[in-house]
Amino acid sequence: MSEHLKQLNIAVKHPAIADFAKEISELGDTGAIILDSTLQIVFWNNRIAALTGIPHASTTNKKLFQVLQHFTNSALEVSVNKALKQMLASVIADSPEQPLVLPVKPLRSPAHAISLSHSISVKPITSFDADIYCLIQVKTVDGQLEPAFNYATAALEVISDAVIVIDSNNMIQYTNPAAEQMTAWCQSNAQGKSLHSILKIYNEKNHEPILISCNEVGNSGASTRRLAVTVVRKDHVSIPAELTLSAITTPDNDEQGIGANSGLILVLRSQFEKKEYDRKLEWQSTHDPLTGLLNRSAFEKRLQHFIDISSNDINQPCLLYLDLDQFKVINDSHGHTAGDELLQQVADLLQSRLRNQDILARLGGDEFGILLDNCPVAMAYKFAEEIGISIHNTDFTWHDKIHNLTVSVGIAPITRNTRSYVALLSYADTACYIAKDAGRNCIHIHEFTNSALIKRRNEMQWIYQLQSAMSHNNLLLLGQKIIPINQVSTLKPHLEVLLRLVDNETLVSPSEFILAAEKFNLMPKIDRWVFKNTLDILRNKDLSAWDAININFSGQSFSDSSIVKFITDEIMESGLNPAKICFEITETAAINDLESAAKFMHKLKSMGCQFALDDFGSGLSSFSYLKKLPFDFLKIDGEYIQKMNENRVNYAMLETINQIGHVFGAKTVAEYVESEELLEQLRKMGVDYAQGYAITKPTPLKEIFSK
Fold first, then answer.
1. Residue 539: its pLDDT value, please?
2. Which of 231, 404, 452, 476 is 20 to 30 A from 668, alpha carbon to alpha carbon?
3. By C-alpha distance, which of 426, 433, 457, 398 is closest to 323?
4. DSSP state of 13
């Protein structure tokens, strides 16, 4: 006989109760508790001991709700009282339709701590002497609940979410290992303590403290709630988290049938990594990755904010636009690694010179912007001078080579008349360019009446218009004939492609915008547009009547390392014979970068393309460079043609240029031939081709090849 059955013989007065207890002790899967009329435990079988972790010996001479304190005022206590006092046949029946599910508090093993659902039946037992006893039976639902819970608890032991179970009194019944990290409390120390004694929880939005209550979830009309919170641990570390609250609901079988929450499950999912990831994404979207400064987009927003709040011109903010003068030399000489190091050093230097309220940004390339708050123009000018001195006194050393640095600065005040950051940046950029034009290492203040500023703005207007025209096809390609004028010649005519900007149905000549395009290095982009669109028009057209189609290329395109590949790819795609393409390059562009021009010409010449040296005579100083250039045609500068009859010197010069071209084996072309008289004189002189209004006027290229 087991020890607790021996004790049962002593504790129970009536053999009938003892015999009954012996029978139910054999039920291995059912827990059994017998109480006397005073609620004192007289029998506690092995199954109950296993479920709760409380051995029978620990329950001797104790009342049930001393041992299971967490069931005080619960449905179980109510049902037991009814069984002992009202003598009902079955107070809580183990009914399949509606089993009573109550939590059983285990103390022995944390793995059982979430085994909260068991079917419990409470029945009265009447002895022969009318003594009343109560039988409580506990079994797992369908006989499968406990293994399922064991699997669930095993999963909870390894998941990264913190799980905390509290009872109806907000006392902690269970914490998984992840909760230890979230709370900084170990499981054994946390169990049995109130939730709020180990963890402070605050609303993430308003930072108000959140007091978790067992009844707040179920009574709010939903069994689950989710909140964005900040958890403050025992060691005062704050962790952003997503909190999920789930009620443990127990049906209450009193007369009103009102349900109650017997506990609450808290699941805390750390949002630290997500917040950190979001923070990094936000930082990357607003900062320059190389220098760590604000990027242009974020800086523009700050500028607009200052513009919006600037209401007077007294303590006005100012914008400084800085451009390093030697950056391109260093970058081209030593590579991007050196350039990056220079930019980082300059960024650090600028940052060290700022006041707390000033804002520094990298605007792109070697350009920086500084927003000086509460800084009148005179103070801003002095600040710019100090920056210039600091940079000038900082030598940049790379691989034992020392570079002296200077910076050009443009200043634009923010006044009550400033409307947008776009205009403000344009003013400051223009002022900076004027400072650079003045010899570098200079400072210029934006003024609306400044003639240099007005010129710069006009140039910028051309740039914006050209860029828009290329995007929206508001550029027009024309063609003008170049005809052979030697009557016995079998030469075929050429066709020169000319560019016009369409401005409100007016055709604007390149002479209006070419200087601005060259100053802002836009010519390579224009050259590509002209070449690609010309070949698109010529594709699948019969060019047998033409010796070549002449296409102009600027000197700036020579330094574009990818231009030859671009030209080659376009020719291959179009299917045109390269010999039908003649590139026109001005004499001035060739002389200015003779090495790049020669390299460019030789590569395309090897494909079969032809070359014409345009405006020859405009930069005439020496003919020695001609030996390095593989040109096929020499186009005489139109000024010589127009003035050939003004004096004998002009005529002689024209004759000399024509002879030089022939000596080099090239055909000569006279430009700007405006009359039949000039045409006849050029023919007698022996010039090979002529071009001008006396021959044909420019015609849209598409019209020429639509016939």
1. 92
2. 476
3. 433
4. S
Tens digits of per-residue pLDDT, 508-545?
Answer: 888 888 887 887 788 999 999 999 999 999 999 999 99
- Structure-token pair, residue 295: 């990027």
Where are the alpha helices (H) located in 354-450, listed in sequence order? 377-392, 421-437
Residue 450 has what DSSP assignment? -
How far, in Å, CA of 450 to CA of 276, rounded? Answer: 49
Query: Residue 167: in which H helix or E strand, if any?
Result: strand 162-167
Give the CA distances from residue 570 to residues 524, 583, 612, 686, in Å, rounded to whole numbers and listed in that order. Answer: 15, 14, 20, 36
CB 52 within 8 A of CB 108: yes
- Rounded to the nearest angstrom, the gap between the alpha carbon of residue 511 and the centroid of all alpha carbons in its chain is 42
pTM beyond 0.85: the answer is no
CA distances from 11 to 44, 83, 145, 511 (A): 12, 20, 33, 119
Exposed/middle/buried for 655, CB within 10 Å: 0-12, 13-18, 19+?
Answer: middle
Judge residue 464's burial from the number of C-beta atoms within 10 Å of its C-beta, 0-12 exposed, 13-18 middle, 19 or more buried: exposed
pLDDT in tens, 175-218: 888 888 888 888 778 877 888 888 888 888 888 888 877 666 54
pLDDT of residue 439: 78
Highest mean pLDDT among 32-46, 105-119, 567-581: 567-581
**Cα separation of the two ends of the chain:** 119
Q: Would you state the structure tokens that stand for residue 44, as one six-digit string?
A: 């506690």
Tokens of 394: 């900082």
Q: Give per-residue pLDDT as tens, 459-494.
A: 667 777 888 888 888 889 999 999 999 876 788 999
Q: At what angle do helices 594-605 and 563-574 cross, to 10 degrees?
A: 20
H and E: helices and strands count for the chain: 26, 28
Phi, psi of 584 (to 5 degrees): -100, 125
- Beta-bridged to residue 411, according to DSSP, are 320, 445
Q: In angstroms, what CA-CA distances link 91 with 366, 610, 667? A: 86, 109, 120
Q: Which residue is it, tokens 């990290």? A: 181
Average pLDDT over residues 423-452: 81
pLDDT over threshold 90, residue 497: yes
Pairwise CA distance, residues 99 & 285, whole Å: 58
Per-residue DSSP letters for 369-388? EEEETT--HHHHHHHHHHHH
Q: What is the structure's pLDDT at 649?
A: 84
Dihedral angle sign, alpha carbons of residues 582, 585, 586, 590: negative
